[in-house]
């Protein structure tokens, strides 16, 4: 009986191996595709649509922009709004355009070669904001460039959502974009004999997260409330943001901007499918990579491929300061004004020693930006 069982297992194994076949997908290397990127929100513009062509398979050519096209946005009241520009594939919606909550908008494109592209109507939903926000001290692990497991200490920034929404079937769908500005300050000796030091104040902005951060569908039929949604992981330490820690005394500050978009079902499905493909890890049950279908099509030639998405979403913006340390489990968050900041640096000269109120060299002035502490 034991021999029969062994023989049966071996036979099944041979059959399994015999049925294994390598799948080589067919690739149409000569097909061009229009790529459309655009977002309209409840805010004032300028709103920009970017048109380009997807590179051919295995191509090393630079991006090819689509210029000379005619673009129009239509709403559900039969109003139309035109675009100007086109240089480097950038088209600007007329400046007096203002999207209205509850209205639907569709994009119409006519290219110079006669092709016509239209999007499905996209409804602008009312903007939502989180109910509360908090930080949790934690450590994240990742595989480094040397294929070794590494650990980074930081804070999970989490939010609670939709407490006031009564039913799960009406729960909004949201996506989050997080940008952290690391501010740091250091002292640089001019020379050992000098009574003066240079003060450097620098700031670098980094977008956190590779995948689109979207809320999951709530399966609770009694409440739409979502608790503990992870907005981002904010590491502690300059080196974890790709910045070299300068010599001398260093202080740092973490300023986090959060853009919360309230999205419709089409937008949610697009980003969810994109995340599925981006998160594949080579396992047997990973989703099969395929063309990511957006909400546009070529109406005069349906066989033509068009990639990208025309998004219409409302947005709420907020900003917080994060105070956390690697050797403490306490994470403190403070709500502060939302300010757009590009990377930069200022420097000025002060008298030693640092710890006391220094006198300014009359030839140099403190040019610290007014938003430096965001209070």
Overview of this protein structure:
With 375 residues, the chain is mainly β. The chain has 2 domains: 30-124 and 265-312, no CATH class; 132-263 and 316-351, no CATH class. 8% of the residues lie in helices and 44% in strands. It has helices at 2-18, 265-278; strands at residues 33-40, 48-54, 64-65, 70-75, 80-85, 90-93, 104-110, 116-119, 122-123, 132-143, 149-161, 173-189, 196-214, 226-235, 250-263, 296-298, 305-312, 314-323, 332-336, 344-351. The strands form 3 sheets. Strands 1, 2, 3, 4, 5, 6, 7, 8, 9, 16 and 17 form an 11-stranded mixed beta sheet that branches. It has a 6-stranded antiparallel beta sheet with strand order 19-18-15-12-13-20. The protein has a 3-stranded antiparallel beta sheet with strand order 10-11-14, with no helix packed on it. A hairpin with a 4-residue loop joins strand 5 (80-85) and strand 6 (90-93). It is globular. The protein starts with a helix and ends in a 24-residue tail after the last strand.
Large-scale geometry: globular
Biggest sheet character: 11 strands, mixed
N-to-C span: 80 Å
Q: How many domain regions?
A: 2
Based on CA atoms alone, the radius of gyration comes out at 27 Å
The amount of beta strand, in percent, is 35-45%
The average pLDDT is: 83
The overall strand count is 20
Query: Residue ranges: pLDDT <50 for 5 or more in a row?
Result: 1-18, 284-289
Helix content: under 10%
Order of helices and strands: HEEEEEEEEEEEEEEEHEEEEE
> Treating each run of at least 4 consecutive H or I residues as one helix, how many helices?
2
Structural class: mainly beta
